[in-house]
Structures are given as structure tokens and as C-alpha cells.
Amino acid sequence: MATDRTGGARATTVDEGSRDAVRATGVEKTYDSRLPFARSVEVLDGAALRVERGQVVGIMGENGSGKSTLVGILAGVVDHDAGEVDRAGTVGWCPQEPRLYDRLTVDETFELFGRAYGMTDGEIAEAREWLTDVLDFERFRDRQIRHLSGGNRQKVNLSVALMHEPDLLLLDEPYTGFDWETFLAFWDLTEELRARGVGVAIISHIINERDRFDVVYELHDGHLHRQEIGDDDDLDPAPTADDVACERTASFVDDGAGSGQRATAGQGESK
Amino acid sequence: MSGVTRTVAGIRASTRSFVREPFTVVLLVALPALSIQIYGVGMGQFPDVGIFAVSGSVATVGRITGAVFATGALAGVLGLFQMISAGYTDRRLAICGFRGVELVAARFATVAVASAVVGVVATLSLVILVDDPIGAPVAAFGGLALAGAVYGLLGIVVGSVLPRELEGSLLLVILADVDNVFASGLFGIEENITQFAPLAHPHAIVTQAVVEGSLATEHLAPAAGHLGVFALAGVAVYTYQVESGGDA
After folding, report:
1. Which residue ranges make up each domain of chain B?
2. pLDDT at residue A11, rounded to an integer
3. Which of 234-253 (A) contact B at CB < 8 A?
4. For chain A: N or C, fewer Cβ within 10 A?
5. How many CB atoms lie under 10 A from the CB of residue A87?
6. Is the ipTM of this complex over 0.90?
7. Are A103 and B95 within 8 A, CB to CB?
8. pTM
């Protein structure tokens, strides 16, 4: 195993012959306050996760459970306090909030990130054509990021994570703001990536889309609980357009006693 | 080769973002003239009876002090704000393959462009507002651009360790104000103290250019020294920030 440039000293690359795209074991993370008398927040406590090549893995959990922190650690953008993270090949990371220069156009953003990945002009143009076509935002190519709608900004955010065709794709709520057509296009794209052998990990709040995943990890109290999704599982129906529309608002409902009982996305107040 | 390509791409993206901020560009153009005039008129109210240890008229030195302050403070705040606005994106770019030094080069390029813009505007304002003709306007521009570059780099350092708009801006403006008072020589403070003020040498270069019409060559090396120290500090804190894992 060789030490990876990203992700701190304990991030290493997975052995060539392994089927794993990423493997994390015993990951611990606590956010310490820099101020005296402020309490520390323990987010991950021995979390373990594995994403194989060609596998689509869902990561679920209530708000503030540490899903974004976990994905940040897998991507190498957040330090972890203990544990091992082993990655294979190149990584594409799509953060929840687009981290893009607001005043660059879509084309300029592709160029900048393409240079970051070491791509040639031709490869950048090819990736741009492919992704703007698949996610349907070709007509916004000359528009600055700050002038895009939230959904289109998210398409650019997702595209720059995908444009170099990574071996491992880490997506933090990637379809926030997507319309129904784009949501379906996203899953078609995910299927294409799965077929190509890309390992995909997706943070999701839409419970009804569990059947799209090979494995679902539930993050609770700092621990990850693995659930295999088999053909004979009692699955919820496929997501509907309404499920996507209420994704951000209907992940949980309060049962009145403060327990935060989970609701299926389709049962949110928009229905 | 790919390192050069990435650096060029980063610089291009950074300068494009800067020039597409029309309000910032307007401020860079408008504020130096205002500051020069306020300082000049304010200082001109004092009678020229030897209260201040200056070589030219008090009003002229007041205008020079206003020019140096405006250039330094504006460039500093711009350095701070670009750190805050670009910090998260730069962190992502570092994950995608950019090296810290390549990203910091983009930040430095923007500081250089901003310093040049504000330096030109401040020099033109001095030419128009100072009573006597300026003997060495190019040297005056050089001194002002140095003041902008030093504080632009300081803004990058402050933005790396204190990435907060209000607190960082206040810190930089107060620093520039105190520094400028030290640098102006108005109060006859010992030179072995004032020489460590970052604006001392740019101020001396501008003063000599405006009042005496010559280049203060003895101040070039110490000014370059300040520039080098802040550049090294900027590279160190920024590359550490974008390359190391954090709680981003």
C-alpha cells in the first residue's frame, strides 16, 4: 500500500488486485472546539464501510449524524482522528454545497477542474459535451455559476466530480434541486458508471430509492450499520417525482415526543 | 508541464473572478481619491509651524499618507476577501489535483493585479490633487504598488488564519492605519522602530518621489524584504490550509 496525497497519513491506496474501491475501518472523528468550555462533538466512533468496484452504496442517517463528515473523510478532504481509509484509483467528490468559483462560466469551470485532473483540451471538451448533454444544461455553458439556478449549479457540481471518469465516486446529496427528468437521468448515469466498474457512494435522504442501491449503510450514533439490499427484500416502491421534490424537507417527522421518527419521503407535507 | 498549465489555469480563473466583481473594481478606483483628499484637507488644517517632522508641506504629506493608507488597506481587504470567497473552492481543487503552491500563485497574481490597479489610481489622484507637480510619478506608483502588494499578502495571511469578513477587515484596516501613522514620520518616532512597519519603506519611496522627485533607492531592499517575508508567510499558511486535511 502506498500513502495517498489526500486524506492524511492514514489514507492509503487499496492493493491492485482488490475489488474494493474504498475501504474504511475503525474511523473515528471528533470535532473539538477551539474555544475553552465549549463541548466537543463526537461524530464517528469506529465506523467501517466498504464500496466495491461496480457497486452503488447508499449512506443514510438523520441530519447531523455525520454523513457528510464520513464522505469528506473518504474523499480525503476531512482529517480523521483514528482508523484506516484505503482507496483505489482516482476519486470524484461531489460535496453537498457546490465549491465552485461563482464568477466563472460553466465552460471555464470545466476547464479549471479539467486542468486540476491533468486532462487535455480534447478530453475536457469531450467530458463537457457528454455531461452537459446527459444532465441537460448545454444551453447554460456560457453563463456564470452565480447566475445559474440551484438545480443547474448542482448539475455543474456533479459534473466536475465526474468529468475525469473516476474509479470511486463520492456524492453528498447529489440531486438536491434536480427536476424529475434530471433525477432519472442521474440514475441512468449511475447505472452506466456501475457497469463500467466505478464504485459509487451516495448520501441520500430518499428512503424509497433503497432498491437502487446494492448496499445501504445507516449511520447512527457514530456507527455504520450495513444492510444488503437483495432481490427478495420487502422494498418500498420506486421513488416518484414528489419524493424528489420533498427530499430536503421530509426526511424526518417529529412524533411529538422528540424522537425524530423517520418518515418516507413520499409522506412529507407536500403530499 | 502540467504544473505550469495548472498554475496558468488557476491564475486565469482567479483574475477573471476579480475583474468580474464590478463593485470591488469601483471601490478600488473611487476610494483612493477620497482617502487622499480627506487626509490632505484634514492635515492641511494644521498650521505649518513644525509640529510635524515632515520634509514637504503638511497637506502634501497628508495626501501621500492618505494614498498609502488607501492602497494598503484596500489591497489587504481584497486579499482577505478572496481568501474567504475562494477558500472552499481551492480546497476542492487541491483534492482534484492542484498543488498548494499553484493555488497560492493564483492568489498572488490577483493581489498583484489589484495592487497595480489601485497603485495607478492612487498615483493619478496624487498627480491631480497635490499642489506641486510630482517629479517622479513612476517611482510614486512603484511605492504605492509595493504598499498594495505588502498588504495584499498580509490580507492572504490574515484570511488564512482568521477567515472572517468583519473581524479580518477591521484588523487589516486598523493595522494599516496604525502602520501608516508610524510610517508617515509625522510624529518623529524613532526610525529604528518605524523601519519595521510594513508601510514604512513604501511610504518613504512615495514621499521622496512626490516631494523630491527622485527614487529612494535605499528603501527598495527593505521593502522587498517585507514583501518576501509576507509572501513566504502566505505560501506557508495557505499551502498548509489547502493541502492538509481539515474540518472543511
Report:
1. 3-244
2. 54
3. none
4. N
5. 26
6. no
7. no
8. 0.81
